[in-house]
TrEMBL record:
Sequence ranges of Basic and acidic residues compositional bias: 499-516
Name by which UniProt lists this protein: Ig-like domain-containing protein
Annotated ranges, domain Ig-like: 30-138, 143-227, 236-323
Pfam family, one: Ig_3
Membrane-topology descriptor: Single-pass membrane protein
Keywords, in A-Z order: Cell adhesion, Coiled coil, Disulfide bond, Glycoprotein, Membrane, Repeat, Signal, Transmembrane, Transmembrane helix
């Protein structure tokens, strides 16, 4: 960038000077060297800037000859115009149409080697005289190169296998780019021609290898490469191969391949069998011999492949042996297939059996689970009924009169268990054959202890506890009600005679017919009623009626008077039942 600026400033300075006294604008130096190439345009610069009081009269281009004389090339006169001389006529011209006043540069459109030399640009001015510039022109010729390969055949003696030539000015330089084990030799001829020869002993392994020629010249930025591959011809060396390794009778699509391995590639391939024609069913397609049918035993034999090319021929043989399939092999295959099928069938059967057993076991488990759920639900309902029956008879809603009768009867029964054992004919009394003969044992509440088997000892304690709770509840209800403890009925339902008798004495009804057994409730036969010793009066009829009424409403089990279940009864939840306080 700095150099361009300096040159521009220098040109401006020269223009200013030329305007004052006149000078050359180009070339700046009196002697100038110029390089050009043949067959290319060449420009020889010459430009003189006159002063204000000067004028150019004539411009002449001359070429110096070897003997020191000059040969005119072209001339321009301010009155006579432009004129070309000798053999330069038609080959040279001024760059500008007005060379006298503007630009006097000389153009050579197609430069030749003969154009090389020293040229003079002569300027004639008035009144200051003559001025000139001297230009030395050098003409180079770019190299013209070629490579000539040699046809080689394997087995030839050592010799030249390729030659490379180049013509240029100045002389070019040649070299080889290859990996082949050979030697090169260069030669130069007059006129700028250079040749290079490469020699070696040709072998078939060298066929197709790289052998390039490189041309070096000052006019080229990089060497010119002439590509070449060595060509070595050799006769065929065939081999026979086959994709099949085991030949047997019945084999289909069998084939043999003949690889020629020669250069140039052979086109003539001949197959023979046992020295004669091929067996029936065998065909040839190029390098292949194939059988259109299944192999037979008589297809065995020696097959020969003959290959020819331009250099020579070659042949090879293949001994084909076809074996019959062994019975043992087929039998083994059958056994293996049958065994595999049996194993698969057994596995399928085992799978089905296991699946069937699994489904059966799953179904059984589901049934057992459902039965367990049903049993748990049933036990839960039975436990609920048991708690309901053992807690109190007041948990069932019936008409008021029947409720009072139940409570009164339960109270009667509880009081009867506290009386001495002077009832006869009843197994539910505390006396009799189960109790002690002389003295009755009593518990902490004054009730006689019931004698029973060891199996019922635990049940007896539970019965006593429930009887005590029920007794307290009944006594509380009796105190607050208008029921009669003697009859178990409201005073409005007691017969008049019975009411009179009750005013004099309190007679306990004979409940001996409610025996301690597990007979189902609702039986109309209550049993024999025991009467008190030494008492037979008119209230016997009332007691019988009361006993019949109570037998329809209560039954005895394990020493406890329990109400008969009524399907029309209304249940009262235990948390809504108001238990009376004991007084």
């Amino acid at each position: 960038m700095e150099a361009i600026r300096t040159r521009t400033e220098l040109l401006l300075l020269l223009l200013i000077v030329a305007c004052v006294q006149g000078a050359f604008v180009e070339p700046l130096q009196p002697d100038t060297d110029l390089l050009s190439f043949s067959d290319t345009p060449t420009r020889l610069p010459c430009h003189y800037q006159v002063a204000q009081d000067q004028s150019v009269v004539q411009v002449t281009w001359n070429k110096e000859l070897p003997d020191g004389s000059e040969d005119p090339v072209i001339m321009a006169h301010f009155t006579e115009g432009i004129r070309e001389f000798g053999h330069y006529s038609g080959r040279v011209k001024f760059e500008s149409f007005t060379p006298i006043t503007e630009n006097s540069a000389l153009l050579i459109p197609a430069t030749q080697e003969s154009d090389e030399g020293i040229y003079r640009c002569h300027i004639t001015t008035f009144p200051n005289g003559n001025f000139e510039r001297r230009i030395r022109l050098t003409v180079w010729t770019l190299p013209i190169s070629s490579l000539e390969p040699v046809n080689l055949v394997e087995g030839q003696p050592y010799g030249v296998v390729a030659s490379c030539r180049a013509v240029g000015r100045p002389f070019p330089r040649l070299s080889w780019d290859t990996d082949l084990p050979g030697h090169s030799q260069n030669r130069s001829n007059k006129g700028g021609a250079v040749s290079s020869y490469y020699s070696l002993h040709p072998l078939r392994s060298m066929n197709g290898k790289k052998l390039d020629c490189l041309v070096w010249h000052p006019g080229l930025q990089e060497p010119r490469r002439i590509s070449n591959n060595l060509v070595v011809q050799y006769p065929p060396d065939p081999i026979i191969s086959s994709p099949t390794t085991h030949w047997y009778v019945g084999l289909k699509e069998a084939e043999l391949v003949c690889e020629s391995r020669g250069y140039p590639k052979p086109q003539d391939i001949t197959w023979t069998w046992r020295g004669g024609v091929l067996p029936e069913g065998a065909s040839v397609a190029g390098e292949k011999l194939f059988f259109r049918r299944a192999l037979q035993v008589n297809d065995s034999g020696t097959y020969e492949c003959m290959v020819r090319n331009a250099v020579g021929s070659g042949k090879t043989e293949y001994a084909l042996t076809i074996s019959e399939p062994a019975l043992g092999d087929n039998l083994l295959l059958i056994i293996i297939g049958a065994t595999a099928g049996a194993v698969v069938l057994v596995l399928i059967i085992v799978f089905l059996i296991v699946r069937r057993r699994h489904q059966s076991k799953t179904k059984k488990l589901k049934m057992e689970l459902q039965e367990t759920k049903d049993e748990m639900n049933s036990l839960s309902r039975q436990a609920s009924f048991r708690r309901l029956n053992s807690s109190s008879s007041v948990s069932r809603m019936q008409p008021d009169d029947y409720v009072l009768l139940r409570v009164d009867s339960r109270t009667k029964y509880s009081q009867m268990s506290l009386e001495p054992h002077n009832y006869r004919g009843s197994q539910s009394t505390l006396g009799g054959r189960w109790g002690p003969p002389e003295e009755v044992m009593r518990d902490e509440y004054g009730r006689p202890v019931v004698w029973s088997d060891d199996r019922e000892s635990l049940r007896a304690s539970e019965i006593n506890r429930e009887e005590e709770e029920c007794r307290k509840m009944v006594e509380t209800y009796v105190r607050r009600s208008n029921m009669s403890l003697d009859s178990g009925l409201p005073s409005s339902l007691v017969p008049p005679k019975a009411q009179q008798d009750d005013s004099n004495r309190h007679k306990e009804p004979d409940l001996g017919h409610l025996q301690e057994d597990n007979s189902p409730p609702g039986d109309d036969s209550i049993g024999e009623s025991s009467t008190m010793d030494g008492q037979v009066d008119d209230n016997e009829d009332s007691s019988q009626q009361l006993s019949k009424t109570l037998s329809k409403m209560f039954y005895a089990r394990n020493g406890i008077l329990r109400p008969i279940e009524n399907p029309n009864a209304i249940l009262l939840h235990s948390h809504k039942y108001h238990k009376p306080q004991m007084i």
